[in-house]
Amino acid sequence: MRVFLGLPIDKDFEQAVVDQLGNWKNKFKSRLSWIKKGNYHLTLKFLGEVEENVVEKLKQELLKIEFMPFKLQVKKIGFFYSQRKVRVVWIGFQEELELKDYFSKIDGICFDLGFEREKREYIPHLTLARVKFFEPSDPWKNFQQALNKFEWPQLKLKKLVLWQSKLTPQGPFYTPLLELK
């Protein structure tokens, strides 16, 4: 099964995202795959296809983590690029000790179960959209500036979730396998 670990966002923050994006979605000629309401989360570790017995071992190890809710503050709206074209639109967050601590614990648990350690630096972000076709004349800069000026609420992270991800023609469908609150 295809699995990942992440932190779902709270309803107030999700509504702020939905409201802000609603002002912009029809202003792009680029083909964007916007994340659907209810699917927003901060990924901590994507594991990919994992055998069920390994998922069970992972659950047992994750139960040893004492999860405490914490908050994040928006740092900026950003883009991940490929060949100088926007490929992912995201909200970045101030790095908080709690987030780094959970990332480090999860990376260690996964390493002990045979997964590779994360090679790239962890950038805490919330994906807003994936760009399927990039149109350079779109208002990328204006979009970024407007969302950076917005007074974002604090993001409240109340649980850590191990999700199963099923890809469908309608988009990904996430099923929680374990929740730590």
TrEMBL record:
Function of this protein? Hydrolyzes RNA 2',3'-cyclic phosphodiester to an RNA 2'-phosphomonoester.
- Protein name from the UniProt record: RNA 2',3'-cyclic phosphodiesterase
What family classification does the UniProt entry report for this protein?
A: Belongs to the 2H phosphoesterase superfamily. ThpR family.
Q: SUPFAM superfamilies from the entry?
A: LigT-like
Q: Which GO terms describe its molecular function?
A: 2',3'-cyclic-nucleotide 3'-phosphodiesterase activity; ligase activity; RNA 2',3'-cyclic 3'-phosphodiesterase activity
Q: What is its EC number?
A: 3.1.4.58
Reactions catalysed, semicolon-separated, are: a 3'-end 2',3'-cyclophospho-ribonucleotide-RNA + H2O = a 3'-end 2'-phospho-ribonucleotide-RNA + H(+)
For this chain the motif HXTX 1 maps to: 41-44
Where the record places motif HXTX 2 is 125-128
Q: Record's NCBIfam families?
A: 2_5_ligase (TIGR02258)
Report the source organism. Desulfonauticus submarinus
- Domain named Phosphoesterase HXTX is located at 15-90, 98-174
Q: Which Gene3D superfamilies match?
A: Cyclic phosphodiesterase
The UniProt keyword set, sorted, is:
Hydrolase, Ligase
Locate the active site: H41, H125
